[in-house]
Amino acid sequence: MMRRVLGALVVCGWGSAALAGCAGGPFGAVGTCVDWVAYATPADALADVSHAVIGTVGGQDGTTDLYSYEVNAWTVHVDRWIKGSGDDELRVLSAPETCSDGSPYPAGDPFAAASGPQLILLTDLDGTWTSVTPWQGIVPAPDDAVPEAWPAGTMGSPAPEE
Question: Which of 11, 52, 140, 159 could make an S-S bridge to 83, C-beta 3.0–4.6 Å?
């Protein structure tokens, strides 16, 4: 009888660990798994977000916790609001890739590589600005305009049509 009870506890324990998935524990990745949306074009992303700016990325402004990951915060100098309104200077969290161990930015933080005018697509999480996705939250904005397409190789973007 004791073996059956122990066997049932082991099966229940493994089942619970499997269900935990990205919630952590000894068998899964740490942090929340976010199912990020992929937009076909920057205009599609702009239509879906509530706030967006054309601006330049200043320096890193510390780190903080987002979805149980330590993420980078950046100062953004706003040239103009494309959608919504707000301050001329923002603190924006760079959304992390989720469902994995290690760095929240396996391919590098896109804000760290940004130079010149950028279209920054924002989400307001209870008064904290964050990029809308890890891959499509910031894109170069030549001529201070919304680009027609994502840069080649933008992760999360649909494959180009042939």
Answer: 52
- Identify the CA nearest to 65 among candidates 34, 96, 91, 35: 96
Distance CA 155, CA 136 (A): 8
Q: CA 135, 141, 145, 148 torsion: positive or negative?
A: negative
Name the residue ranges covered by the structural domains of the chain.
1-30, 42-144
Phi, psi of 72 (to 5 degrees): -85, 140
The three-state secondary structure class of 122 is strand
Token couple for 75? 């100062």
pTM over 0.85: no
Residues above pLDDT 70, as percent of the chain: 76
* Structure tokens given for 104: 């929240």
CATH number for the region 42-144 comes to 2.40.50
Q: Region 6-16: what's the mean pLDDT?
A: 37
Tens digit of each residue's pLDDT (9 = 90 or more) over 98-155: 887 788 998 899 999 999 999 999 999 999 999 999 999 999 998 889 999 998 877 6
Per-residue pLDDT for 60 more than 70?
yes
Query: DSSP letter at 154?
Result: -
**Contact (Cβ atoms closer than 8 angstroms) between residue 142 and residue 119:** no
